[in-house]
User: Fold these one by one.
Assistant:
Number 1:
Amino acid sequence: MHLHVNGRPHELPDGTVLTTLLTTLLTTVAPEPRGVAVAVNDRVVRAAEWPVTRLHEGDRVEVVTAHQGG
Amino acid sequence: MHVAGQELAPLWLGTGGLTSLETVRRVVAAGAPGLVTVSLRRVSDTGEGSLLATLDQLGVRVLPNTAGCLSAREAVLTAELAREALGTDWVKLEVIGDEHSLLPDVVELLEAAETLVDRGFTVLPYTTGDPVVARRLVDAGCAAVMPLGSPIGSGRGIADPHGIEAVRAAVDVPVVLDAGIGTPSEATQAMELGCDAVLVATAVTRAEDPVTMARAMSLAVEAGALARTAGRIPRRETARASSPMRGRVGR
């Protein structure tokens, strides 16, 4: 299936859960993903729900963390 | 000063523009800020979380911002992501009108503030030096207001001191001067005008020596706060001798 992850096209097998995607993006996801948050189609998905959140064709996934800022 | 019942030192620091995590450490140590601000951005392939880990080690409060958001919708989503990522319901709410001036879009700002207050956030909005807008933000439930001195990153100081005084007089929540400070004397001026805190980012992070400038800003803010408490003399049209006029030699 085709997704958009942080604004870029992304290809994943049907039925992939969010945690699986995140492990490809982040060096450390478990056990304490402090500092990272995820939205799918503009809705925040809490960390506890990542393992059971299945992604779907066309989903827009945003994965963000703290950067320098003013 | 206090925000939402939390006591905070009156210098707040932005981290944008610091060149290394070691500089972040030294700047925070030198400035002893009440909090530091961070932005929320898409993760990159390297280094995610390392800024936050550094700030956690320093034990300094972290305030996420919604910098760069151009609509209430974007700002609300960014605030929700920040709450999830950082475990704080405090947010420095920025909604800018365009990417050139970086000036607040107060219509979108007020809408975002109302939504976020409803959702349990402690909202600290970056706003204009307009007392009417400030009052509307406080009526919406904002915990502080953060009027700009001059445009973000411009270093032009406080363009309209009367506007800042008017905001101070209009609201009973903390006023935090945000944006435009270029040098410590301007941070002192903000406190003398009645601000409760000053947020400085570029003036420190892009100074030739950010660590020394952080220390200077800390001293400047403290001086201004003390001066405000001490009460300055009124301005006079004419001179007034401080030495006695009586008993002068030869008269």
Number 2:
Amino acid sequence: MRPLTEDETKTMFEKLSKYIGENIKLLVDRPDGTYCFRLHNDRVYYVSEKILKLATNISRDKLVSVGTCFGKFTKTQKFRLHITALDFLAPYAKFKVWVKPGAEQSFLYGNHVMKSGLGRITENTAQYQGVVVYSMADVPLGFGVAAKTTQECRRVDPMSIVVFHQADIGEFIRSEDTLT
Amino acid sequence: MLALDKNPPSIREFRENKKDEFLRSLARDNAQLLLNEIWKLPTERVDEVIVAKLPEPTTRLPREKPPPKPRPPTKWEEFAKLKGIQKKKKTNLMWDDVHKEWKRRWGYKRAKDDTKEWLLEVPETADPNEDQFAKRNKAKKERVAKNELNRLRNIARAQKIKVPGIGLAPTGQQSKSELEKAVHVAKLSTASVGKFQDRLPKEKAPRNTGKKRKFQPLIGDFSTEKQKQLDILKIMDGKKPRLDINKAVNKQMREEDMESDSKKKALPAVSSRAKTRAILHLWAGGALRKARSSGLLAGTQRLRSQRGGEEGLFLALGPGASLPLVRDPAHGSPSLLHRILSKPRRTCQCQGATNGAFQPD
């Protein structure tokens, strides 16, 4: 476990800012305690200082996970967000998409969101903007990337993809053994 | 004691005669031969028993590994074989006339040691200022180096590796990594060790330069760490253009859409004027009759606000800027009757689009 280097911090923040914009500041600078990002096994964990200090008692090869896993760095040093980060993305999300109850299951099985399943979408969503996907009852289901702008969404046919799937809470079951 | 009969038993006899008899006779013959051999050994009498003294037991084991292959001949050995040159054994020691004793032919303390001379004759053709001792040392070093090179070439030839030439000849086609390395070396080869060398726009920093990565401590100063991250965020924010062109274009498009929508809405309203008028009568009690066009506008606005109330539930949950996607029916007519009529049809469409498999007939 180690702190992120400057480059790593930058790549991670750039990825995070696609979903929560400048709200990252609220993650870094929290009034309720000191929280920090730590790298362990190529994964980035968001940990409170207290838990971090406790975790130092555990040797590196025995430590599976600490705090909340935000995602991982690929071998080419790109950053991939994991579904575990949803708890921190959802409250600060700038662009949201609500899916209809009928399309919820399809999304939770890892499929893209079609126009037919789209309930509502934040106004002025740009193309390829990172969005957090909610059910109509405002339960965060996952996140993805807007395939079309809000403007285009109104015109396209019902079977065209509106949001590209990136992660959904179904992964907690589907990829239980790789999520830490 | 072990006796081995290496002769193969004749299979024909084994099959023809009685098998037991044949084997018994064979065993008897062999036992006789063994006893004959024992009687050939020296014997002695111990307590009236004749005892033969057996030889020391030996067991010859086969070797574990195959014998090593002969070393491939060197270039000289090949040449010598071709020319029929044979090695002549020379004595190790030879008589040294100067010291009047036997000395080694070569090596340390050898006879006729030319390195021990305190004086050297300068040849007539040579430069008089040249250091003859240094010249001899250099010649010796070169001979050693040449020998070493030949040795390596012999090894390379034996292992069928491409025999390296002398010096660093440029290869015909240098690979990307080789070129990168060459560029890096060339850049560092300035008086200031490449400190003031410009970089190309997309040039990457050379990897594996021997510098180790250094990380911050795991539990260090949390406040400086936070400050650093905030600084990074500030820089990232600063990089974003103040005017997001995409967003601006989208906004413009949306405004145009709204305009065209409102125009569309206004047009059919004129055609269904009679219905609208009836509703307006109900609502305003004929008070708005005098200004028909303006009253119509007010009616539409009221209708819109009603619709807003219906969806205000979602608006309250979501952020302020969220747009209900469920659009008005294509007619865009503000008439209430039309709206009521078209509502069940709309829900039907939705069902069909979302979950066609479970649609009831």
